[in-house]
Amino acid sequence: MSDYSAEMLAAISEIRDLVRLLAEPAVAERDKRFRDELRRNVGSSAANASAVLLMDGSRTQKEIHEATGINRGNLSTLIKRLGEAKLVVGEAKMPKLAIPIPSNFFDSGAENGKR
C-alpha cells in the first residue's frame, strides 16, 4: 500500500470513529432494550464484560477464553443466554454481538453506553 493510500485509510478510519462517537446517543436510544438485556445477562462480572467486548465475530470461543481468562463453561453459558436473548448472531463458536456497543459500555457510571 502506498503512503498516500495509508494516509487516506487512516483519515477515513478517524472520520468513521468520530461519526460513531457523534451517533452514539442515538444508537444507545435505539438499542436501549437490547443494551439493558445485555447488562442484565453480563451482570457485574468483569470477565463476562471483557468477553462480550471481544465478541465481534472474528474470534472463537477458545480465543476469547484465552484473551480474557473467563472460565470456558461460563463463557459457553453466557453465549447461550445471549443467543436466546437475540444478542448474538452467527455461530456460537465465533459469537458476534447483534448490537454495537462502545468500548466503555461496562465501565462504572455509564448510562446508555456511558454508565
Could you explain the architecture of this structure?
By secondary structure, the protein is mainly alpha-helical. The protein has 2 domains: 1-30; 32-103, Arc Repressor Mutant, subunit A (Orthogonal Bundle). Helices cover 59% and strands 3% of the residues. It has a two-stranded antiparallel sheet with strand order 1-2. A hairpin with a 6-residue loop joins strand 1 (88-89) and strand 2. The radius of gyration is 16 Å and the shape is globular. The N and C termini lie far apart (40 Å). The model is unreliable at 109-115 (pLDDT under 50).
**How many alpha or pi helices?**
5
How does CATH name the architecture of the largest domain? Answer: Orthogonal Bundle
Tell me about the largest β-sheet.
2 strands, antiparallel
Number of domains: 2
Q: Roughly what percent helix?
A: 55-70%
Measured between the Cα atoms of the first and last residue, the distance is 40 Å
Task: Determine the mean pLDDT.
Answer: 88
pLDDT < 50 stretches: 109-115
Indicate the overall shape.
Answer: globular
CATH fold naming of the largest domain:
Arc Repressor Mutant, subunit A
The main sheet orders its strands as: 1-2
The secondary structure category is mainly alpha
DSSP strand (E) fraction? under 5%
Please report the total strand number as a whole number. 2
- Report the C-alpha radius of gyration, rounded: 16 Å
Topology as a string of helices (H) and strands (E): HHHHHEE
